[in-house]
Amino acid sequence: AELINLAEQKQLVLYAGIKTAYSTAYSRMILLAKSGAIGDIVTIDATCTSLRETRFDDPDAMSHTWSSILGWGPNAMLPVFQLLGTDYTDKQIITRLSPESDKFDLFTQIHFIYPHAVATIRIGRGVKSEGELVIGGTKGYIYVPAPWWKLDYFECRYENPNDNRRYFYQLDGEGLRYEIVSFVKAISDKSIHYVSRDITASITGVIEDFMHGKDTTMI
Prior knowledge:
By secondary structure, this protein is α+β, with helices and mostly antiparallel strands. The chain is built from 7 helices and 9 strands. A 9-stranded mixed beta sheet has the order 8-7-6-5-1-4-3-2-9, covered by helices on one side. The longest helix has 15 residues, at 197-211. The radius of gyration is 18 Å and the shape is globular.
């Protein structure tokens, strides 16, 4: 069988850790938001955080440890770019680096500004916060409770609580089997399934800007 080229392999590797992207509940939630069920999308807030002990004095351990932007950034940016697109007009990155390593961000917050919407992601490997996803629209909003990246349930909420709807979908494990199926299909027909190339490029571009300190403020 013909091997996929190096660029395609890198894209597949980048999304190997985003099991959320392939779960049934997540795809249904994205479709519902795009359908106009909550009106025009105006704001998105996505939070992904975890607390883990990091051995900054161990070079070998550090080489296998992902910082906040690398570990959580792709997860948090995915729904933003899938719902609002990748043509944001401006972004602002605010980050807090570890006092023990200037290459490890304990917490990072990124604001994306669009012509008619705004999105904020909060990611942290040294700061803990409520890991929820909220998509606000002109008619209502979608709420996904923590941890939203293990999505099997979400709600559409409206001004009149009687109109609220709850959606439940079975999630086997953490969604790894769905990801494997997509990965196999990507290899067999040499294409990227579900996550588009422009979103892949936008996520890596934001991470690259962070690495170079572009649009970044330290706190």
